[in-house]
Amino acid sequence: MRTLDVLEYAFRDYTSNKFKTVMSSLGIIIGVMAIVSMLTLGNGLSSGVTQQFGNLELDTMYVIPGTISMGPQNSNVVEKPPVQFTDRDLNLLVNTPGVAAIDPVISLSGSTVTSQGENRTIAVDAVVPQYFNSWYSGEMDKGRYLQPSDTYSVILGSNVSNGTFDKAITTGSEITISNPYTGVSQDYRVVGIMKQINASIIGGNPNVAIAMTKAGFKAISGMTTYTSITVRSDTVQTVDATAQNVQDSLALLHRGESYSVITQKMFASLISTIFGMITYVLAGIGGISLVVGGIGIMNVMTLTVRERTKEIGLMKAVGATTTDVRLVFIAESAILGLFSGIAGVAIAGLLAAVVGNIAGLAMPLSVQNIVIGVGFGLLITTIFGVYPANQAARLDPIEALRSD
Length: 404
Known about the structure:
It is built from 11 helices and 10 strands. By secondary structure, the protein is an alpha+beta fold. The chain folds into 2 domains: 3-52 and 269-402, no CATH class; 84-253, no CATH class. A 6-stranded mixed barrel has the order 2-3-8-5-7-6. Strand 6 (174-178) and strand 7 (185-194) form a beta hairpin. The protein is elongated, with a radius of gyration of 33 Å. The protein starts with a helix and ends with a helix.
C-alpha cells in the first residue's frame, strides 16, 4: 500500500466513529496539557521571580562576614569566627585588581521610626558617602544625597517616603529613630528621597530602608564594623576573576576568620537551577498522565483490532501485506497522538494565559514547550500503538474472515 493509502485508511476509521476517537484521545490531551502547562507555568514563574528581584547586576558581588555555602558542606571543616570588617578592609578592596567600586553598609533591622505621631518598623543602614556607588546608587528624587559631614541627616527610600506612613514624608521633615536593642532614640532631618530602584537578591530593597552616615548611626548604635560590602567588578566578564582577587586580598588580613564572597551570578544560576528542577518534576507528574493516556489508547486499539477482525482479513485477502496492516494501525495511533497533542497544547496555552493574567505574569508558550508537548503525544501513542498493530498484522486472513 502507498503511504497516502495508509493515511487515508487511518483517517477514514477515525471519521467513521467520532465518539470513540474523542474518548480515546482524552487521556493524551490531558497528559500533553499537563506537561506543557507545567513547563510554561514553571518558566513564567521563574521569569516573574527574577523580575521581582530586579535586574540582576551580574557584575556585582557581596562580601559578608561568616561562611555561606552555595553547595554541600563538609562537616569535617572547623568553623572559623566571622570576620569584622573595618575601614582597613575598605582601603584594601579599593586597591584590589578588577574592583571598580565598593559600597560598605552597617545594617540595623527592626528600628522603630516615628513620623508625625506614627510608628513603623524600618531597616536603617549606615553608609559611607565617599563610596556612593552600589546599594544607594539610584538617583535622588528630591533633595540631596548624604555628605561626609552629615551627622543627624538621613535619606529615605522611595517607599518609606510615600507609602509606609499614612502621611507622606518630605525633605526637611523630622523623624525619630529608636534602636530596639539599646532603647536609644535620636531625631534626624530628612535631606533627600531616593527614586524607585531595583531590589537586590542579597543586598535587599533600598526602597524600604533609611540611610545615614556612620556618625549618625553611632548615635543610636554601638556598631562600628560593616555588616556587608558591595563590590562592583570592572565588567561582567571579569566578575569571577575579581571575586577571586577579593578572596585573595582579604585572606591576607583574615587568615583565622571566615567571610564569604558571593556574586550575583551565583544566585542567578541557583535560581535557574531550582526552578528548572521544580519545572521538570511537575512536568514529570504530567508525564504520568500521558503514559496513562497511552495505556488507554493501547486498550482501545486492542479492542478495535478484535472489532475489525473481518476487515483485517479482507484487507489481507485482497493483497495487503503484514507490513501494510501494521502500518495502518500504527498510523492510526500516530495521527491520534498528533491531533491530541495539538489539542493539549492549545488548552495548555489557554490555561497559561488565564493563570498569567490572574498572577500578573507573562506566560507565553515557547516553541520548545510546544514541540515537547506535540512530540511526546505523538511518541507515546505510536509506542503504545505497536502492540495492537502487531496483533492485527499477525491475524490469519482465513481465520479472520471466518470470525463472527
